[in-house]
Amino acid sequence: MEAVARIMVEDLLDLEAEEQEQTAVWGLMDDPWKESGAKKDRFEWRKGVDLYVDKEGRISRPYLADLDPARADGTVVLRSVVVLIDYGEMYSATDTTSTSGATSGDFIVPLRISSVAVVKEFIDDFFELCPLGELGVVLMYNKTAHVLTAALTSNHQMLKDLIDDEISRLESGRSGTSRSEGAVRSTLNGPEAALEDAVVIDGVRAAQVSLQAGLEKCYLLLNNGKSYSRKEVLCIWNSTATHDAGLIGDTIDVLRTHNIQINVISLTPHLHVLERLTSTCHGDYTVIRNEAALKDQLITYSKAQAPSTDLDNSKDLIPIGFPEWEQGLCAALCTCHNQLKFNSYACPRCLARNCSIPSNCAVCGLLLAKSLDIARCSKTSYNVPPFQPLPPNKKDCYMCDRVVLSGAGVCLKCNQVFCLDCDVNIHEYLLPCPGCQYIDLLSRQGLQTRSTKPEPPLPEDHPQYNFYQDQLKLIQED
């Protein structure tokens, strides 16, 4: 009797261990019939799920994106970004030496004027690719940091105007030497003359900057912003040292604790404090050599970023309101500018008037957006994989229906052929593949399943031919 009982206990332990292993394989999912108490096969509810095999031979399932955000192909579109601009050290464009005696060929000579111009272009690109994002700008000079906006905003024109006003104010405080005279003096006398021509505020040269002061201002801006968005700081560094009043290590620990990502683009040689800052706060540290590289690097940060388990922990639903454009016979007071206007957007929650969207309602704080903004975000959230080039052959383009003689490419998911012009249009502007969208539409309507795909238009000598044949065999076996 004891032997039978021992065997039964061992069987129960083995069954429990097997069930835990199955849970680890299928993911942490709640049993849909656990609450109802129905006794069903634990794999019965998964029979309707289609299995797919990707290029590497791994099995993927449509619901994996819902289980683990790290497995999703999407990207983060709700972003709160503060641009931290170093407006400290500046040397003339004609300088040939640096503070360390190196020539300008070793690294780029910092030019803060050109950096500010590139940042204004970045603002336009950011709101074009992330219309639901928010931006703030902080300038560092004179061992302090100056915040241009009291809160993060989505008004790109206001941000650029504030930057121009602040730069004009700082340049008007320059000591009596003109720019041309300063360039000649810096060329003849070296960087010391250029530092004498730097901006002087309250009797102190603005060449000395404090990274700690700038990071603290960025933290205050982001901490008062949206709790559900990705918090980022993009620092454009022009100096060769930082002059901090306190311990910058404590500030870095606070930023890491609040999951704030720090990215640094440096126009000066490598600094250890910047490397420690970016590595601790899950960011990137890039040293560039010219203005063209600065523009290319800013374009990468203007696009929607990939999700990260270290930075994106919020999984709550986000309320979004779609206001209506109302044209009234009498003027109404807008809540964003406190001005009387005839045409405005009405918040669907509190009926407050707002001039422009996307923005947050000034009364109830609801995120207001258009359906077009959501569509633009969803388009930029998923990257279309590059099409596989085909050898010269007479094919019809799936998108424009023209005969393609050369330069054709095939989508590896829907097996449709596209010409070179349509290929560029899909990857640069349209983003979703028309063939893949059509198959998804048919599968939703029940007219066609994703398993019934057309034969690949590839010759037998094509490198992807064997992969397609193996994939079709697996589908037929299932």
Automatic annotation (TrEMBL):
<dbReference type="GO" id="GO:0006357">
    <property type="term" value="P:regulation of transcription by RNA polymerase II"/>
</dbReference>
<dbReference type="Pfam" id="PF07975">
    <property type="entry name" value="C1_4"/>
</dbReference>
<dbReference type="GO" id="GO:0006351">
    <property type="term" value="P:DNA-templated transcription"/>
</dbReference>
<dbReference type="InterPro" id="IPR036465">
    <property type="entry name" value="vWFA_dom_sf"/>
</dbReference>
<keyword id="KW-0863">Zinc-finger</keyword>
<dbReference type="InterPro" id="IPR007198">
    <property type="entry name" value="Ssl1-like"/>
</dbReference>
<keyword id="KW-0479">Metal-binding</keyword>
<dbReference type="Pfam" id="PF04056">
    <property type="entry name" value="Ssl1"/>
</dbReference>
<dbReference type="GO" id="GO:0008270">
    <property type="term" value="F:zinc ion binding"/>
</dbReference>
<dbReference type="InterPro" id="IPR012170">
    <property type="entry name" value="TFIIH_SSL1/p44"/>
</dbReference>
<dbReference type="GO" id="GO:0006289">
    <property type="term" value="P:nucleotide-excision repair"/>
</dbReference>
<dbReference type="InterPro" id="IPR046349">
    <property type="entry name" value="C1-like_sf"/>
</dbReference>
<dbReference type="InterPro" id="IPR004595">
    <property type="entry name" value="TFIIH_C1-like_dom"/>
</dbReference>
<dbReference type="InterPro" id="IPR013083">
    <property type="entry name" value="Znf_RING/FYVE/PHD"/>
</dbReference>
<dbReference type="InterPro" id="IPR001841">
    <property type="entry name" value="Znf_RING"/>
</dbReference>
<dbReference type="GO" id="GO:0000439">
    <property type="term" value="C:transcription factor TFIIH core complex"/>
</dbReference>
<protein>
    <submittedName>
        <fullName>Transcription factor SSL1</fullName>
    </submittedName>
</protein>
<feature type="domain" description="RING-type">
    <location>
        <begin position="397"/>
        <end position="437"/>
    </location>
</feature>
<keyword id="KW-0862">Zinc</keyword>
<dbReference type="GO" id="GO:0005675">
    <property type="term" value="C:transcription factor TFIIH holo complex"/>
</dbReference>
